[in-house]
């Protein structure tokens, strides 16, 4: 039986050309598209090219306060109050012996070099202070409350670099510089294939004459991939090796970097992934973990094309945990997220047994530094998985957990 680390390394090696290819291909997207597809919040788009700022940021000297623009050298002089300067207008030059009421963000008039906040003048607030005819200029240093042109970034300087994640902050900076489209790396494209003749696309119903089930893995993995910036689509295929190969050939006519299958890799009589793909290059193996023991991977030759395949067990919890352990770290890193789930050490609230020689991953809810297991160890318990906030690790060598034992948990939401 191989370790989690060995299997993770083999999958990383299989996927490294996939990620390199996607990163090499650059496409142009608008800032609006990035916001609309949700990638500014998760699964960030990654810049494929440097972005140089076409303008100074700020674009012009402007006021940091609502107040009065004046010359600092006028300290103690009586200044005549001229027309107010609102944000969004180009002001007239400030004549000698005058001061202009100015609002936050408004362009500084030529001649003025400082702003006195309205609180320190006359009635102390606008609009009342607009009625003043004159003020006595208080003492201020040159540049006080003036936001200097280019103090954030100079025109021609790099605003962001190739490889940077397009975060909300970067979107703001790009928009401030009036950059409306950016060149980003193409997203990796994954085809998820849920195998099993028991899977139903509709509502299988319930009762004594029902043996069909809903496809949990197609949608859960698609969502999980989306969170790490992958363009994922999902299909279902029955337990028929010929149908599986046909479906893969057909689906690969649409550009695909990686195929992820679920089900059909263990010891049963109808193991479709194993039967169809082992002879074509898939390595079927067992990893010392539970859930997620049966695993397979490799470049698969379909005659018409060769594609990297990662095959997960069919149980819905096994499929998601396999994703968390083997694929999420790789794709998270590729889209600018931390490859590791946030981890912490907590105390077990309950006792639990763990299989000898395997790394067990239980589901739990953490509160006040204590983890309560949600459901048992079985990998069909998808509703319990949905309730969990954390994955709970029981490492190889620990066969029994007692209340109060310290365990590592990963926060998954
Ligand atoms: N004799 C043995 N039997 C099994 C072993 C073993 O070592 N010896 N391993 C068990 C373990 S552990 C797992 S995990 C499963 C893995 O089996 P497969 O990957 O071949 O998956 P299937 O048999 O196709 O399905 C398992 C289970 O999951 C349900 N399933 C499958 N796909 C979906 C889906 N898309 N949505 C919802 N549920 C799905 C399927 O109906 C089965 O109940 O093998 C054990 N058996
Ligand atoms: O390895 Mo299976 O994934 O326990 O349930």
Automatic annotation (TrEMBL):
Keywords: Magnesium, Metal-binding, Molybdenum, Molybdenum cofactor biosynthesis, Transferase. Its cofactor is Mg(2+). It is an enzyme of class 2 (transferase). Pathway: Cofactor biosynthesis; molybdopterin biosynthesis. Its EC number is 2.10.1.1. It holds the Pfam family MoCF_biosynth. It catalyses: adenylyl-molybdopterin + molybdate = Mo-molybdopterin + AMP + H(+). This is Molybdopterin molybdenumtransferase. It comes from Frondihabitans australicus.
């Amino acid at each position: 039986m191989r370790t989690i680390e060995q299997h993770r390394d083999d999958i990383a090696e299989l996927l490294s050309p996939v990620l390199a290819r996607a990163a090499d291909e650059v496409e142009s997207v608008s800032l609006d598209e990035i916001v609309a597809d949700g990638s500014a919040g998760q699964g960030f788009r990654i810049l494929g090219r440097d972005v140089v700022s076409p303008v100074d940021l700020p674009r012009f000297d402007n006021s940091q306060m609502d107040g009065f623009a004046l010359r600092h050298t006028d300290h103690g002089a009586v200044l005549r109050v001229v027309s107010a300067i609102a944000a969004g207008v180009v002001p007239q030059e400030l004549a000698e012996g005058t001061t202009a009421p100015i609002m936050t963000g408004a362009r500084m008039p030529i001649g003025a070099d400082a702003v006195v906040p309205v609180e320190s003048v006359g009635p102390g607030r606008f609009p009342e202070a607009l009625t003043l005819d004159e003020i006595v200029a208080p003492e201020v240093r040159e540049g006080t409350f003036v936001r200097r042109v280019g103090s954030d970034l100079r025109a021609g300087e790099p605003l962001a670099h190739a490889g940077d994640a397009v975060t909300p902050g970067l979107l703001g900076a790009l928009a401030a510089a009036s950059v409306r489209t950016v060149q980003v790396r193409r997203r990796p494209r994954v085809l998820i294939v849920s195998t099993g003749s028991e899977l139903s696309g509709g509502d299988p119903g319930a009762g004594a004459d029902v043996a069909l089930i809903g496809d949990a893995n197609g949608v859960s993995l698609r969502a999980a991939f989306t969170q790490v910036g992958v363009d994922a689509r999902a299909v279902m295929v029955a337990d028929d090796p010929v149908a599986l190969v046909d479906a893969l050939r057909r689906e690969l006519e649409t550009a695909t970097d990686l195929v992820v299958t679920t089900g059909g890799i263990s010891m049963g009589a109808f193991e479709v992934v194993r039967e169809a793909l082992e002879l074509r290059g898939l390595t079927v193996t067992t990893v010392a973990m539970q859930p997620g023991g049966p695993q397979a991977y490799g470049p698969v030759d379909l005659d018409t094309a060769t594609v990297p395949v990662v095959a997960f067990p069919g149980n819905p919890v096994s499929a998601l945990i396999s994703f968390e352990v083997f694929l999420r770290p790789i794709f998270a890193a590729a889209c600018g997220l931390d490859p590791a789930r946030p981890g912490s050490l907590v105390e077990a609230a309950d006792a639990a047994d763990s299989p000898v020689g395997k790394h067990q991953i239980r589901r739990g809810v953490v509160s006040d530094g204590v983890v309560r297991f949600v459901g048992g160890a079985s990998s069909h318990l998808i509703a319990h998985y949905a309730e969990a906030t954390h994955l709970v690790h029981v490492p190889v060598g620990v066969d029994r957990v007692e209340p109060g034992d310290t365990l590592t948990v990963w926060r998954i939401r």
